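Slide 14.
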Amino acid sequence: MWVRAAAGDASAMTTQVQPRVRGTVQIRRALGIAAASAAALIAWAIVDPVGGVRLAVHSGDGTTTIGPVSVLMTSLVTGLLGWACLAVLERVVRRPRLAWTGTAAVSLALSLLGPLGSAVDGASRAGLVGLHIVVGVVLIAVLGGTAPSRRAGR
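Slide 15: predicted structure.
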């Protein structure tokens, strides 16, 4: 949207104003979470049924196979938690996009400890790390792209 000052105004100049429509941001974030989940399911399909790698982790006395429902639910919950984290950062820090990127990158790095420590074998470990990275990269990029670089009013 363009805004032009009144014709007789001595400081007349044209500036571009970028309106921040809340609904649009929410839609982009929701679609980003859906995209991360879809990417995770595609990656799982490539690794597990197509690639023949059974994704599994040690749990208690046995093993748990990681299937499409686990992948979908985990990526959705992760995305929603990321969105909540970003919403808090937008309210409390001066540079929410920078804070989001750092926080999300550290969270992604820490999430890798799960598959690195509990996968049943090397192929499963590589596949699960790949799933974490796919979801993390999509969420960091999409949610970060919706965050303001600076908080308004400061």
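Speaker note: Strands lie at 2-4, 14-16, 56-59, 62-65.
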